[in-house]
Please model this.
Amino acid sequence: MEINKKGSVLVVFGNDLPAKKGQWWKQFDIVIAPKKLEAKILQCGLSYIDLNSLVDPGNVQEASELARTLSRLKLSDGRRVSKFVNYHGYELWWMHYDDICYKFCFPFTQYRTLLTYLKNCELIYLYKPPFASLFRYFLEAHKSKYEIVEEFSQTIPSVGTFVQLLLSLISFPWLVVRRARLMVWTSDQFDLPRTHDFRMAYIYDELYKKKLAFVEFIRSMESTRTVIHHAILRRRPAIYSYAIVTVTHFLAVVLKGRGSDKKTLNLRLGAHDNPEDDFWFSVATCYLLNVTGDIWSIQAIRFILRCIGIRAAIISAAVNRNFHEVLACKLLGINIVGIQHGLSPRYYFVSDYMFDFDGEKMMSVDRYGLCSAWWKEYYIKNSKAYKSDQLFVSGPMRPLQQKSLSYLPSNATAVIKVLFVSEQLCVPSESLPFLLTLMETANISLYIKFRTYHDGFEEWLKENRPEILEKIGKGKILRGAMHEAISQCDAVVGSHSTGVMEALLQLKPPIFFLTKKWGDYFDLSDCDLEYKFFARNPRELVDCVRKSEEIPRDTLKKLQERFFGDPYQNGSKWVVEQVEDILRNTRQ
Model:
């Protein structure tokens, strides 16, 4: 069917306009951009539309269901697209399941209104869009004339990536001689003065107690200067596996050409005339464009593991960031121990669930520790990524210490101290009404907890609403450990963060609020409990906070047992004990 396309449009996603001369602007009828650029655009004599009016917060539940639908998509020969590439029994499509969810399905729920608007335009110019491939596949499916200027469009790996590769090459001979039998997959974010990932402190403590030799496979997203600085501080040979995977993918593109795998596989969807089907087919098969890069990367990591002599691995969970390492281990028969490092319902951590997976071989870690018996039953019921014999009750990765803080209320006055947890992945416009209502409510003293590392919500407040931070006051802005922040307050609120739920570790009430993006993330509205832990609007949140002091200790204890099991059970110790068991059984 012929589409009647009208008008030309420029869409600006960032805070700066394209550096073009006056004549160039005359080709556009409309400019869609952030509100702060409105005045400049109107000065050019162009029509203006606020970008925010065409963008939604998105919805993780809908995105999860879209990804699930794509996994069931069938090719013209009747096969599911997820089964098209089988490498030694492993269906490689699933390596990128969460990439498809996070980089395509979820952004689609955000930009659907904008995409619908654009498909009827005659000429489209997109300036620095996030998720450029999403827009490209959609506009190509609708046969739109478009041009995209990407913010990060480099095809050659960065200098920092090659620095990491060089550090790996320097470490490799030493590691071959040393023959460490344990691999630890980690990031490059230090908790100084500790020289390791701040989230894995307890695991490292146990490894040092047991005097277990290990080699780190690092996914570093830090600056080149930080990478070098951390390498000097670490004073341990290490393999920067993410850099190796990145360079290997690049070589596959150079030597074989992007898209050659798709041509070789001759992928075809059943006959159709629907542009939407074309679009979703492109999304579902985009990571098959360079499946050679995936295979070569797995082979490269497997070669390194074999040469070093690895016999066991600690990888928290199999996700898009480490599937090459996971499958390399599996091909060598190396058992992998993982552990739940955050409370992970089925809606967002999709690689932990893979709802319609029925592959010949499992792509998840071999032994997966969960916080509680409730989580084990939850995974057995909802996850296809794990079989029941892979799941264990390990206790929390970061357990409470016996000298933990008192569970008594933090004050005996009429004022309720509330901790608002800043969430990196929140939509500020959704969280702000709840924050402001708490600030304006009498007898509520509001504290806010920001992340130690970069905090997106804090940056947004500084840029857009600095007066809010001033009104809260420096004394009530907390940046330390989550348990220390919780200890200063009576209740903890947020939309989805595990940090909110950690209030239960001190038997304090966690209260979540409804956003379009996260919904009822932990299904708390369905809990068979007398008291409410979920608010659907700001006034309801205030009501929940005020009534939170009435919640009996036994009710909080019941929720604590559900989500955290025994909070003193050391899950990190369990991880290291499992590794010791594997190493004992694989001695030659």
In short: The chain has 22 helices and 20 strands. The domain at 416-564 is CATH 3.40.50.2000 (Rossmann fold).
